[in-house]
Amino acid sequence: MQLGNEQRALLLALGAVLLWSTVATAFKLSLEHLAPVQLLAGANLAAVMTLGLLLLASGRLGEVLRGSRRDYLRSLALGLINPLAYYLVLFEAYDRLPAQEAQPLNYTWAFTLAILAVPLLGHRLSRADVVGGLVAYSGVWMIATRGEIFALEFANPTGVILALGSTVLWALYWIYSTRDRRDPLVALFCNFALALPFVLLVCAFTAGLTVPDWRGLVGAAYVGVFEMGLAFALWLSAMRLTRSTARISNLIFLSPFLSLFFIRAFVGETILHSTWIGLGLIVAGLALQQSFRRA
């Protein structure tokens, strides 16, 4: 039986969500064998190869060479934000925090995006942004204090700042990416390819370009192929096929909860009650933001 577009879109989106659900575990396991910048270097290289193969298979690789000078300069600037700055800060956060804490904190990027869109794009904060943000950031407080909400003490303040700082970089990347009119996969490939020499330079002058333990190599390859490459391609394909982007977008709420099960099973972290409550508040805030806007 041949699947219709909506069924195919659903399967592709679920595939992307499943892959994104595993990356917090992959980050944490890989960082046991690699420095954050080494993980970034290996993953960036794997991502460039994966995205290049996807473009070759779809017959769009030639579009990479047809960009203008402005396109390449934009890609270089965006590449310095993502992957270089964003993933370096994110991996540093995962290196300091339990995966169960770093992962939900990173999910607050949608509210950071709404806040930054005010000065950068001239948007106004809607009631949905304010209400949803208050709910979500109460979840951040719950996670950061590990349930001791009145103690005013953070278990790892540097890690929390880095995790929340990564949301600023991610939001900036998407705000400035809106000006890029190229095919999204082509643009992403250019961003990652032009950033790669700078990532390798940073790695060489800090942790060093050494061949890591095989487990580190596998981890970096997994992050680059699946988190930075295939997951994005699957999600993009799903959004192109569906007539209901809202329904497909709602599937992303499954990812952080699935991620906690992978973290418990493979990283071995005992999931705290404060993590479940905080994540629930963050997801509830995201849901409120989306539902109010649709209404």
Structure commentary:
With 295 residues, the chain is an all-alpha fold. The chain has one domain. 77% of the residues lie in helices and 0% in strands. The longest helix has 28 residues. It is globular. The model has no long low-confidence stretch (mean pLDDT 89).
Q: Which features would summarize this protein structure in a list?
A:
295 residues; mainly alpha; globular
Could you give the topology of this structure?
Blueprint: H1 5-30, H2 36-57, H3 69-96, H4 99-106, H5 109-121, H6 127-144, H7 157-177, H8 184-205, H9 214-241, H10 245-249, H11 254-267, H12 273-294
What would a concise description of this structure say?
The chain has 295 residues and is an all-alpha fold. The protein contains twelve helices and no strands.
